[in-house]
Structure formats: structure tokens, C-alpha cells
Amino acid sequence: MKNNLTWSEMKxxxxxxxxLIVDFExxxxxxxxRGVVERHSRSKDGCV
Length: 48
Known about the structure:
Blueprint: E1 4-6, H1 7-13, E2 18-26, E3 32-41
Antiparallel strand pairs: 1-3, 2-3
């Protein structure tokens, strides 16, 4: 099972990286609240 992280935890754990986030939850405004980081990369192309 993959680790479900808050947006703050993702920014702290993967600073300056592109993230592919799945199984995510958003707030009423549509902003990301939490999710699972499927992939991460310093390069945008590394997340596809």
C-alpha cells in the first residue's frame, strides 16, 4: 500500500520535484488536500 500524504508533507518530502498524484482528495475550492505520490522526478518528463 502506498503512503497517503498531505499536500504539506508532499512539498516537504519532494521539494522542487514534479509529482504524479493519484487517489487524491480536494477541498471545496478544488485545491489538493491529500493523495498518493505515484511518481516523482526533478524533470517533468520523468513523471509521465
